[in-house]
Structure formats: structure tokens, C-alpha cells
TrEMBL record:
Keywords: Membrane, Transmembrane, Transmembrane helix. GO terms for molecular function: chloride channel activity. Residues 65-535 form the Anoctamin transmembrane domain. The lineage of its organism: Eukaryota, Sar, Stramenopiles, Oomycota, Saprolegniomycetes. It is a multi-pass membrane protein. GO terms for cellular component: membrane. This is Anoctamin transmembrane domain-containing protein. Its main location: membrane.
Length: 571
């Protein structure tokens, strides 16, 4: 309790080599430091532009791993590779978008081909990332690092029974029941709001069509006017405008509340290591966010009219406004908050110091030597507070702590946009590519300028996020098959007499074939490149030989230390 009362912050501080990392990572387009250039101003600017665009997907990952730890470095390595792999969907998506513009229709014959391409692309990307992650893990010396190698969490209650006992299973049952209940509540609210709005919009369109037909016949009856009055009531405007706005405003509130509930439940589950704790929290929070983000798009795609157009408009809105706003929030708001807090603290401390100095003479006159000592002590204390307020250490303490969870969540939701719904808006990969190029440097700026230095945690990959990506790739296959069958009309154009039940069977078989292809690719392609696998085998052999030699030496030394009196001969 005394330790908790006295310690405000416990964190690693930034070092002097942060400036080098800032220059090579955040401001990578600037000329190298300490290198004099005799070129003219125009040549220097052209060189900077060349580095700005030519090196936009190049990062000093080794320096990031050394300074911030492998856990943070793996996030940036994954985003870098994901952005590079977006080039192929960008090219194919632009081609499909041109076809849509030329034909003035979103429903294109190439849609099934594009859906198959995106499914195979997602599978190949995950296989390639697995090989890349193992190569980086070997280079950084964390290949084979497992959760069992970690130390226990400080918040872990050692008195609790370890392992999956019936008490732990009971906790899991309670927590996951709450998670499923929250997801069901959000889905119910969303479905009720949007179905009511669509029903009233359909009634309004029907009334408008009747009025148009009546005016053309020059017969406007009393029943027609009554039907218009019945539809265009305050209830109509409430469901059409107010309900969607309330739903949009409530989602952030639900998100904050559910994150707090999930954090409390995960702490109650009492996981032994930090990785297990984070994985359990991710498996609760990320599905909730995916549900309330993707639910609207799924509703527009499969439960509404004009589905392709609605999905395209909604997806473009999410990717243009949402991602740009996230980049502004991640950098601008913490920077403004930091400067405002620093200015306010310095100003308040300076005023207190001026007040103490002004009353110094009065205190001395009233109390003599005792007054002098007390006022001097107070003045020294205020000077110390002023020094704290102006120090870099105190400045770092007032920054937000950094966690990769929000960044991973943003990127995986974008991965869902691209792999789930880009068949309706083929420019989604292009918007994702541009956003990621900017986000790489925005996140680097955030780490180097506006957040506390995170603890350098070890990791051999992206952790629980990789199984989540694998699951999302399977969902992408199912979603794209459903798009081809029910969102587009391509199957009817090839087979006009197909029945709905036959269409369902076609989707079922196609989805299973593509998923089987994904599993086959993941099984056939090795997890490591041949050179990394050979080096890893060689190191394991050396380690095994060294361990055997150490054990043999220990046994020999123990036998030499035995005395004759320690040996008992039994006949």
C-alpha cells in the first residue's frame, strides 16, 4: 500500500538514440544527418521527394525492435507487408471499377472472378506473412518464444487454482454469456432501427408513385391525401432520421462500456501471463467491434434493396471519413493535449512561486527565523514543482500509454472491408493502401512523440491476431460466395432457370471448395523459408549438444566429489 501511494508512474523512459529513430523512421525523407550536400536547393527537394515516395514502405524494423521491443516491431512489420500486398487488389480493383463506370452498373460479369481472387489473395497473404514472421523472429532472436517463457503477471493471484478447472470453466461460461448477450443487444437495436426506416421509406416511395400517377390522370382523391398524411408524420421522420443518428451516437458509448466490462471480466478470469490476459481481452472486444462495424454492411448487402449501391456508398463513407478521422485523432489530439497540459502546469506553478516569493518578506517579519525557514521550505518545494513541470521525465509521465490493440483493431477492420465487401466498391483496396502509407508514419510519430515509451515485450509474431486473421479469411470466402449468389445477378445470367434451393447448394459447395483450397495452401507451403529452417535446425542441434555436454560434465564432477565413506558395499 505504501508503494502504491508513493509511486505515480512506472514506465521506461526515452533515450538519446530516439532522435536517430525519429530521423530514420518518422522523418525518413530528410537528408542523412551529418552529411554535407553541395547540391542546389531544387536538387535537394527533388531528392527528398524521391525518398518520400520511394521509401514510403521501408522501415528500420531492426531499430524499432531494439528500442521498442519485438511486440511493437511485429505490428509495424505486419502493416508494412499487408500494405505491399494490397498492390495486387488495387490493380484488379481499378480494372473492375473502370468496367463498372463504363457499363454504369455495379453488377459485373467479372464479379465472381474478383471474389475468387480476393479469397485466394487473403490465403496467400497469410501464408506469406507466416514465413516473414518466422524470418524476423529468427533475426531478432525470438524464434520459438512461447507464452510459457513469460513471467507471471503482477495482478495474477497465485492462490487461485491454475489450469482449466471447473471454477475456471464456470468463469468462462459467465463472461462469454455476457459477451454474447451484449452482441445480441447491439444487433437487435441495429436491426430494429434499420428495418423500421426501410419499411417507412418503402411506404413513402409507394405513396409518391401513387401521387405521381394520380396527378398524371388529373385525379387527386381524398384517400390519396389521407395516405400521404398518414406516412409523413413525426413518426416517419423519427424512424428515418432520428433512429439512425441515435444508433450512430450510441455505438461509441456501447463500445466504451463494453470495453470496460470486458476488461473487468478478463481480470476476473485471472490469467497467469500478460499474453494470455491480452489474448482473452482481444477475443472479447474485437468480435464486438466487428459486429457493430460490419452489421450495417451485411444488412445492406443481404437484407435491403439496392444492396450493391448501398454497400458501396457505406463502405466508401467508412473508409474515407473514418480512417482519415482516426489518423487525425491519433496524432492531433494527444499533441494538443500534451502542449496544453504542459503550458497550464508551467503557468500555475510559476504563479504559485511568484506568490510565495511576494509573501516571503511578510513571513519573515511575522515569524522571525522560524518564519524564514518555513517560507523558504515552501519556496523550495514550489521550485521543485516548477522543475518537475518543465522536465522531460514529467512530460513523459503525462503522456498516454501505448498499446497495439487499437492499431491492430483498426487494421483488421480495414482488412475486413477489403476482403469482405470490395466486390461492391473495388476502390476499397486503393483507399486502404493510401491510408496505410500514411498510418505507418502517423503511428511512428505517435510512438516517438505523443505516447509513453512502451515496455519492450518479447514476441515471436503477432500473437492471437494471426488466428483472428485466419478466421476472417474464412469469413471472407463465405461472404464473397454469398455476394455472388444473392447480391449480384451473375448466377441468374448464366443459369436463368436456377431455383433458390439450388443456388444455396451452389454457394455451399463453392465455399467449401475455396476453404479447402485455403487449407491446402496453408498446409503445403512451409512455415519457414529453407535457409531459416536449416539455420534453426542447426542451432537446435548445437543447443542439444551443449546441454548434453553440460549434463555430462556435471555428473562427472559429482562422481569425483564422492568420498569412500559415501559408498556402501552390500554383498
Amino acid at each position: 500500500d505504501l508503494f502504491v501511494a508513493m509511486v505515480e508512474h512506472m514506465m521506461p523512459l526515452h533515450k538519446a538514440n530516439l532522435e536517430h529513430l525519429r530521423h530514420s523512421w518518422v522523418y525518413y525523407w530528410r537528408p542523412p544527418r551529418g552529411v554535407a550536400s553541395s547540391a542546389c536547393w531544387v536538387s535537394r527537394q527533388v531528392s527528398c521527394l524521391g525518398r518520400l515516395f520511394g521509401d514510403c514502405l521501408t522501415q528500420p524494423l531492426d531499430d524499432v525492435a531494439t528500442y521498442f521491443g519485438e511486440k511493437v516491431a511485429f505490428y509495424f512489420a505486419w502493416v508494412e507487408m499487408y500494405t505491399k500486398w494490397l498492390v495486387a487488389p488495387v490493380v484488379v480493383g481499378i480494372f473492375l471499377f473502370v468496367q463498372q463506370v463504363q457499363s454504369a452498373s455495379l453488377d459485373q460479369p467479372l464479379a465472381p472472378v474478383y471474389a475468387l481472387f480476393m479469397a485466394i489473395w487473403a490465403s496467400l497473404f497469410l501464408v506469406a506473412w507466416r514465413r516473414r514472421a518466422n524470418s524476423l523472429a529468427y533475426r531478432w532472436g525470438v524464434l520459438g518464444y512461447e507464452e510459457d517463457d513469460e513471467v507471471l503477471r503482477l495482478a495474477f493471484r497465485t492462490s487461485a487454482t491454475s489450469g482449466l478447472t471447473w471454477k475456471r470453466w464456470l468463469k468462462y461460461t459467465v463472461t462469454w454469456s455476457i459477451v454474447v448477450g451484449c452482441i445480441a443487444l447491439v444487433l437487435t437495436i441495429m436491426f430494429a432501427a434499420f428495418t423500421a426506416r426501410d419499411r417507412l421509406q418503402d411506404e413513402s416511395v409507394s405513396i409518391q408513385n401513387n401521387v405521381t400517377a394520380t396527378l398524371q390522370d388529373h385525379e387527386l382523391t381524398l384517400s390519396t391525401l389521407s395516405s400521404i398524411h398518414d406516412v409523413l408524420t413525426p413518426r416517419f421522420w423519427f424512424y428515418c432520421l432520428v433512429m439512425p443518428m441515435l444508433y450512430g451516437l450510441c455505438i461509441p458509448v456501447f463500445d466504451i462500456a463494453f470495453t470496460w466490462v470486458a476488461t473487468t471480466m478478463t481480470t476476473w478470469e485471472n490469467h497467469a501471463t500478460e499474453s494470455a490476459h491480452q489474448s482473452a481481452l482481444i477475443l472479447k472486444v474485437f468480435p464486438f467491434r466487428c459486429i457493430h462495424v460490419f452489421a450495417t454492411l451485411y444488412y445492406y448487402a443481404f437484407a435491403a434493396q439496392n444492396n450493391l449501391l448501398r454497400v458501396a456508398i457505406q463502405l466508401a463513407t467508412f473508409m474515407l471519413s473514418g480512417q482519415m478521422w482516426n489518423n487525425v485523432v491519433k496524432t492531433g489530439l494527444p499533441l494538443l493535449r500534451r502542449r496544453y497540459q504542459l503550458h497550464r502546469k508551467r503557468r500555475a506553478t510559476s504563479k504559485l512561486l511568484e506568490t510565495d516569493v511576494r509573501h516571503l518578506g511578510g513571513g519573515v517579519a511575522a515569524g522571525g527565523g522560524k518564519g524564514l525557514s518555513s517560507v523558504t521550505a515552501r519556496a523550495n518545494h514550489q521550485c521543485l514543482r516548477l522543475e518537475h513541470a518543465t522536465s522531460e521525465v514529467w512530460d513523459e509521465c503525462n503522456m498516454y500509454p501505448y498499446d497495439t490493440f487499437e492499431d491492430y483493431t483498426e487494421m483488421l477492420i480495414q482488412f475486413g472491408y477489403v476482403s469482405f465487401f470490395s466486390i461492391a466498391f473495388p476502390l476499397a483496396p486503393l483507399l486502404a493502401f493510401v491510408n496505410n502509407v500514411v498510418s505507418l508514419r502517423v503511428d511512428a510519430f505517435k510512438l516517438c512523440h505523443t505516447t509513453q515509451r512502451p515496455r519492450a515485450d518479447k514476441a515471436s509474431g503477432i500473437g492471437i491476431w494471426f488466428p483472428v486473421l485466419q478466421m476472417m479469411s474464412v469469413v471472407a470466402v463465405i461472404t464473397n460466395c454469398l455476394h455472388v449468389a444473392f447480391t449480384t445477378t451473375q448466377i441468374e445470367q448464366y443459369v436463368p432457370a436456377i431455383s433458390p434451393s439450388t443456388k444455396v447448394w451452389v454457394v455451399f459447395v463453392a465455399e467449401h471448395v475455396v476453404v479447402a483450397m485455403q487449407l491446402w495452401i496453408a498446409f503445403v507451403v512451409p512455415a519457414m523459408t529453407p535457409d531459416i529452417a536449416a539455420k534453426a535446425r542447426l542451432e537446435r542441434a548445437f543447443a542439444k549438444r551443449a546441454t548434453a555436454s553440460l549434463v555430462t560434465s556435471f555428473h562427472r564432477s559429482s562422481c569425483h566429489e564422492l568420498d569412500a565413506s559415501d559408498v556402501e558395499l552390500v554383498i
